[in-house]
Write a structure and sequence with these properties.
about 750 residues; Rossmann fold; binds alpha-D-glucopyranose; 20 helices; 6-stranded mixed sheet; single chain; about 30% helix; globular; alpha/beta; Immunoglobulin-like
Length: about 750
Amino acid sequence: MFYKNFILALVSIGLFASCSTTKDPIEEKVEKLLSRMTLEEKIGQMNQLNSEGAFDDLHERIKRGEVGSVLNEVDPKTLNELQKIAVEETRLGIPILFARDIIHGYKTIFPIPLGQAASWNPKLVEEAGRITAIEATSVGIRWTFAPMIDVSCDSRWGRIAESMGEDPFLSGTMGAAMIKGLQGNDLSDPTSLAACAKHFVGYGATEGGRDYNTTHISNEQLRNTYLVPFKAAVDAGCATFMTSFNEINGVPCSGNPFLTKDILRKEWGFDGVLVSDWSSITEMIIHGYCKDSLEATEKGINAGIDMDMMGEAYISGLKKLIEDGKIKESSVDDAVRNILRLKFRLGLFDNPYININRSSPFYEKAFLEKAKKIAAQSVVLLKNENSVLPLTESVKSIAVIGPLADAAHDQMGTWVFDGEKEHSVTPMQALKDRYGDKVKINYVKTLTHSRDANKSGFGDALAAAKASDVILFFAGEESILSGEARCRADISLPGVQSELLSELKKAGKPIVMIIMAGRPVEIYKELPLVNGLLYAWHPGTMGGLAIAELLFGDIVPSGKLPITYPAMVGQIPIYYNHKNTGRPPLDDSPRINDISPEAPQMSLGNRSYYLDAGDKPLFPFGYGLSYTTFEYKNLKISKSEIGKTEFLTVSCTVTNTGKIKATEVVQLYIRDMYASITRPVKELKDFSRICLDAGETKEVSFTLSPEQLSFWNNDNQFVLEPGDFKVWIATNSADGLEGEFKVIS
Ligand code: GLC
C-alpha cells in the first residue's frame, strides 16, 4: 500500500510540477522567436512608419526588417503586398501590424466621443465600437488609436471633441466600453481591433487649452483625476497604450518612467504595447528635455516605450546606445516581447493576410440604425421653453436655416478619414424625407459654412422665417474647427451666425437652435433669443435623422452633458467636481452692475466668483432635459454610519410625471466633507439609465463601496478616512436628493 501511495505521490508532484511550469503558449512562442532574433530585427519591430507616401522606400525598409507596424494603409491589396514582403521575404517572417486612427467609426461614423459620452450609455458605445472594428478589420486594420480618455473640461482645447469629458468615472466607464467593443471577446478573432488608451497621461490639462502645451499636475490630481480612466482601460484589457505629447511638471510623458513603468507596468500590471505618439520621443529634444536624438532614444526606452511612432529614433539610435553601454539589450528584449505578444494574441502569425474577396460590411443597415440610435441618445436637450419641442401637429411649416442644416461632411466631426459624406443623412434631408409630407419646409442655408461672414442671404432667411410657424436654426462649427491642434480662444459661434439669429428673431416666431460642434460653444448671448436648444455635438453619419426624429418627438431626448457648459470662455476652467475653497461663492454676491460708482474698496463680496460671469456655468455637468418630467423622492440610505469596510446602499424613487415614455439618466454623487486633503464638492460615483412609462415609478438603488469613498492623498496612499459624507441621487450635478452618512473608524 505504501508503495502505491508513494507512486501516486510522485505522479501528483510530477503533474503539479508540469502544471506549475505550463506557460501560456503565446509566451513560449514569444520567447522562442525572440531568441532567434538579431538585434537589428528586434529594433525593426520597434519602428512604426506611415504608409501615406511618406516612405516610397517602404517596401525596401520592410524587406530589411526595419518596420514592425505601418500606419494608415487602408487598401487591402496594398496591405497584403506589404505584408507579403514582411512574411515571405524577411528572415523570420514576422507580420506587420497595421494601424489607423479610427476614433468614432470607420465608414459608419458615430458621434464624436464627447457626444457618445453624452449618451451615458456604455452598452451603446460598446456596440458602436464593435461595428467600428468589423468595418475596419475588413480592410486589414488590426490596431486603432482609441479610446482617447484624457479628462478635460477645457472647451478651448480642440481635442475635447475626442474626449469623454470632464469626469474621471464617466470617462473610464465609456472608455472601457469602447475598448470592449473594439477588441471583442478574443483578440485573435479576425474582427478584433486592438484598442489604444491615449494619451497617457494628463494631456487634457494642457495650459490655456492650447494643444501640446505644458501641464502642471499635482500627484493628487494625477491619481484622483487623470489616471482614473486609464486604470479602467487596463482593467478592461486594453491591448495598447500611447504616451502623450505633453510634459508634466517638467518631464515629457514619453520619457517618464514613473508613469509608464512604475504605475502602468509595475503597479497596474499592464503587459501590452506602449507606443509613443507621433514623433513624441524625438520631440523631447524640442521640449528641452534631451540634448539630441540619442538621448531622446535612451529616455524613451528607459521609460518603457515599446514602439516609436514615426520618430525614427529607435531605428537610428538603439544599437549605438547598446554598443556604448548606455542601455542593455534586455530593454530592447522587453519591448520586442510586448510587441510579439500582441501580434501573437491578434493571431497575425496564423492569419497575416486580409481576404480581399471578403464582402465589405460597410454601412450595413443594422450599423446605420445603431449609428442613428447612439446619435439620438447623444443629443442633449438644453432648453425647451413653453414646450416648443417636440413639434406638434399644429406646426404646419418650418423654416430651416443655417450652415449646419445640410452639412454632410461637417456633421461627421473630427478625426474622420474613411467616412464618406455621401452616406451622411443631414437634418435637411431627413426633415424633407421623413416629415416633408407633414410640414412645409422653407429652407435657406444663408451661410455656406460656419465661418461665413457674408450676410447677403439674411433677407431671404428672414422671409422664410416670417413665412413659417417655427424656425429651426442649425448653427455650430465646421468639423475642422475641433480636433487635434484646433484650439480656439474665442469659442463663440464662428462667422456671423449670431447676427443671423438676431435677424431671425425679428420674425417673431418660436426659434429652436440645433448646434453641431466639437465642443460647448459660448452662447450666453444667443440662449435668451431661442425657445428651444438641442445640442448635437457632431453626430455622425445618421445624425440628421436622429435630430429630425427628436424634433418631431419620435424619439425623446435623454442625453446629459459630459462636460460643464461654460457661460463665458473666461470662466474656463470650470467644472463640477471642483474644490470648495475657503470662500465659496454666495448666490447674493454682488455682480458688476450692482456696484455703485466710486464704491468703497471693501464693499464687495470677497468670494470666489467673477463680477461679470458669476460662478455658475450656463449648464451643469450631467444636465439634460426630456420631453417629460421626472420626480425624485424617498431618498433612503441603508445606514447612517458605516465602518471602513462596509458597503452602503442608497436609493430613491423616480416617477415619470409627464405624458410620454422616456429615459432618465439617474446619477449618484458623493462629497467627503473634510479629509487630510480637500476633496471635491461633488464626485460622480455611479449612474443608471432608466426607462419609465408615463406615470410610472421605479426605485433606483446604488451601492457605494469603501473603494468608491476612498481617495489618493499627498503621500501617494489610497485611503478611506472616517468622517462626514454627503450623498445625492440626482438628475444632474447641480440638483438632486441630498442625504448624509458617516464613516467611522
Ligand atoms: C496624432 C495624435 C494621436 C494619433 C497619432 C497617430 O498626433 O496625437 O492621437 O493617434 O498622432 O495619428
